[in-house]
Specification:
The chain is of the alpha/beta class. The chain contains twelve helices and six strands.
Length: 241
């Protein structure tokens, strides 16, 4: 079973080109929406990094056997955390354009979202869908994907995003999220868009060197390389599996 985990501000639609490139049928994979991202929040769910990691472990357990897990952006961070917590549930892991790195201090928008009041003001601006769509495209999101994702960025998703980033202090990871990486299963892979404006390629290179994880760099691609270079990503995943 393959488990795809999207990031921010995305939904499972992110994975459609990759699923097609891999030739997967509905019985081969699951691509759940993060709580609050186009779907309701479960009763009592607090949108922070630890609750999302616990939720992801539950998704892995529900598969009934070790999964091949693939994560992008926040989905990558949660994949690394869940795989560190429950390596027994992992057949292999692959993350794209985000890693847990104590030397990384977050991109500008992440730091703004993590700041009380300023984050709320930024989110007010995100209510303007044409402006948000243009900003995402400027940041490297393929225009066709932006057109599909932006309508899902509602108040619930915006509040969930604030909760996530504030719980991570704007992507400044410390403590057990970093320390527990020693428990990551060895069978892993990094897939990285070379021109990512949010997480520099050097972050991936540092992670790869530190943990001995193979790194595939997709030249000329950006933060959403997993979507825009689905055929290349499918080849990397097929080799890993």
């Amino acid at each position: 079973m393959i488990l795809f985990v999207h990031g921010v501000p995305d939904t499972p639609v992110l994975w459609q080109p990759l699923i097609a490139a891999l030739g997967l049928g509905p019985e081969d994979y699951r691509a759940p929406a993060l709580p609050g991202f186009g779907v309701p929040l479960p009763q009592g769910f607090r949108p922070d990094k630890d609750q999302y990691a616990t939720w992801l472990v539950g998704q892995m357990e529900a598969a009934g056997k070790p999964v091949h897990i693939v994560g992008h952006d926040w989905g990558a961070l949660l994949t690394l955390r869940a795989a560190s917590l429950r390596p027994d549930l992992v057949a292999s892991w692959c993350v794209t354009n985000a890693v847990i790195d104590p030397e990384y201090s977050g991109h500008r928008t992440a730091r703004m979202w993590a700041t009380p009041v300023l984050g709320e003001l930024v989110m007010l601006g995100m209510r303007n869908q044409p402006r948000l769509q243009a900003a995402l495209i400027e940041g490297g999101m393929p225009a066709s994907l932006a057109a599909e994702e932006v309508p899902h960025v509602d108040k619930r998703m915006r509040q969930s995003i604030l909760g996530l980033y504030r719980s991570a202090i704007g992507l400044r990871f410390r403590g057990e999220w970093v320390d527990d990486l020693v428990r990551l299963p060895a069978r892993g892979q990094l897939f990285w868009g070379e021109t990512d404006p949010f997480v520099d390629l050097s972050v991936a290179e540092r992670f790869s060197k530190r943990w001995g994880t193979p790194l595939h760099v997709e030249r000329g691609a950006g933060h959403w390389a997993c979507h825009e270079r689905a055929e290349a990503f499918a080849r990397v995943l097929s080799a890993l599996w």
